[in-house]
TrEMBL record:
The lineage of its organism: Eukaryota, Metazoa, Ecdysozoa, Arthropoda, Hexapoda. Gene3D superfamilies: TolB, C-terminal domain (2.120.10.30). Residues 1-24 form the signal peptide. This is Bee-milk protein. Belongs to the major royal jelly protein family. GO terms for cellular component: extracellular region. It is found in: Secreted.
């Protein structure tokens, strides 16, 4: 009897384990993946125009989604990059679609004595007014022999006809020799009066650009600085030190034409906030006595360095990538920024290694690009393995069962309430994960225990 029942017992366990795995990871799906990037060369002659092309130098980094296209940036980390801004169509049914340079092949071509229209962009943003904002670092061959080929610039395209609407060069007095403009957020409540926030992680500083006045100004603050205690990153066995300042920016509308900007430096575990009402006022934003208008919210804890973040306007939740933890996490701004009030929505030590961009589209879907950047920079990517992935899933579903899905009415700073929360709802608590790696959420463990109990009752 004992021996006979042991087989179904393991069978049930196995089924249960499988089901748990599905639940644990079904919040996001890998929709595209590449071992190495391929371009959609129109002809062999085109290839001749890019003599330096080396496939292994091409690594995807930034992501943007429009109704018909998916944009992917490929910064010029090394010399063999074809084009630093590309797209493919969403109706492309291949799992590893080929990239098409944007807005054209010519816009990326080096000709004797001149630089291309787009030199090297890290991140881009499509606004709700059908414009694509491209933040060009002007910086190439970063890993081997770095060269500032042109000053950093903002290029804005019309997505309806891919025409360049405007190019704005970031003024010299708003940057430093260490500048690297790696991230952009766009506040587009008004198409005529749009603002772009350009994060300079090297400065560090924040350049605010007004579409209407065609001017920009530099905002400096101590909260943009890297934290010397958070400069060490450990990503899948590779350890390195980065001293990067202002990076992640999420804009939460305050329903008065302005936003609360949640931001953090890359080499930091802290999250901060500032109102765009301040940032958009060139006088006040650059004044030295604005210190108290910036707020320190709290920490993500040990190994909690975050790269990109994005605030979902539908759920009001801030989603952010945890670079050293192969994870995507969430936090609802109505809550305090405490570790207990942050949650994981996705963790995977194979597929989510170095989540590098995160966007939420107009249908409420979250999109994430992961690319194993540290291995590309400090070791070597295996060309036979899937190295680059794009994930997609509903933001609403992603926060289900996490602290981020609670109603604002049930959120309070009442210690009794937080005690209840503590004991009931939260799966995959950040605190737990940081101490002991990825654990299944307690709800599923109790289901497992129920199943085992049922089994024991039935078979023994
Ligand atoms: C392009 O080159 C490949 C291999 O180098 C060759 O097989 C193919 O026929 C060429 N195509 C054209 C249109 O010349
Ligand atoms: C895919 O979408 C693009 C743009 O919407 C369109 O031009 C193209 O014809 C479509 N291709 C297919 C195979 O449907
Ligand atoms: C990173 O890993 C190294 C070696 O594996 C270790 O010595 C170091 O303490 C780790 N750093 C952090 C911040 O965890
Ligand atoms: C949140 O509040 C709304 C309206 O008060 C209610 O209908 C909904 O069920 C609540 N959701 C949760 C998860 O409590
Ligand atoms: C995932 O990686 C983290 C950090 O490297 C480690 O602490 C954790 O144990 C790993 N989890 C699994 C399930 O391998």
């Amino acid at each position: 009897m004992q021996a006979k029942s042991i087989i179904p017992f393991f069978y049930v366990l196995l089924q249960c384990h499988f089901w748990m795995m599905v639940i644990a990871s079904d919040k996001l799906d890998v929709v595209y993946q590449w071992k190495q990037l391929e371009y959609e060369w129109p002809s062999n002659d085109t290839e001749l125009l890019f003599p330096g092309y080396k496939q292994e130098d091409n690594l995807p980094l930034g992501l943007e989604i429009t109704s018909t296209r998916i944009f992917v940036t490929v910064p010029r980390w090394r010399r063999g990059v074809v084009a630093s801004l590309n797209y493919f169509y969403r109706n492309d049914t291949r799992r590893s679609p080929n990239l098409i340079p944007y807005p054209s092949w010519e816009a990326h071509q080096y000709e004797a004595g001149s630089v291309p229209e787009i030199i090297s962009t890290f991140r881009i943003r499509a606004d709700r007014c059908e414009r694509l904002w491209v933040l060009d670092t002007g910086f190439t061959d970063i890993l081997d022999s770095p060269e500032q080929q042109a000053p950093p610039a903002l290029l804005i395209y019309d997505l309806r006809d891919d025409r360049l609407l405007r190019k704005f060069v970031i003024p010299e007095d708003q940057r430093t020799p260490d500048s690297l403009f790696a991230n952009i957020a766009v506040e587009d409540y008004s198409c005529e009066d749009t603002f772009a926030y350009l994060a300079d992680l090297g400065g560090p500083g924040l350049v605010v650009y007004s579409w209407k006045s065609e001017k920009s100004w530099l905002v400096k603050h101590h909260f943009f600085q890297p934290d010397p205690q958070a400069e060490e990153f450990n990503v899948s066995g590779i350890s390195f030190q980065w001293t990067d300042g202002l990076f992640g920016m999420g804009l939460a509308s305050t329903n008065d034409g302005y936003s609360m900007m949640y931001f953090h430096p890359l080499s930091s575990t802290m999250e901060y906030s500032v109102s765009t009402k301040l940032l958009r006022d060139p006088e006040r934003a650059t004044s030295l006595d604005n210190f108290h208008e910036f707020h320190a919210l709290g920490s993500r804890g040990h190994n909690g360095q975050s790269s990109v973040s994005f605030l979902d306007p539908n759920t009001g939740v801030l989603f952010y990538a945890l670079a050293s933890l192969n994870a995507i996490a969430c936090w609802k701004p109505r809550n305090m920024f405490k570790i207990e009030q942050q949650d994981f929505i996705y963790v995977d030590n194979v597929t989510m290694v170095f989540p590098n961009d995160l966007k939420i589209d107009r249908n409420g879907n979250i999109w994430i690009l992961s690319d194993r950047l540290p291995a590309f920079m400090y070791s070597r990517l295996d060309p036979e393995d899937y190295n680059f992935r794009i994930f997609m899933g509903s933001a609403k579903k992603a926060i289900k069962g996490t602290v981020c899905s609670m109603n604002s009415s049930s959120i309070s700073n009442n210690p009794y309430d937080s005690m209840i929360e503590e004991n009931n709802v939260h799966p995959k608590r950040l605190k737990t994960v940081q101490n002991s790696g990825y654990v299944y959420n307690s709800g599923l463990i109790s289901i497992l225990i129920t199943v085992i109990t049922l089994f024991v009752r039935t078979f023994i």
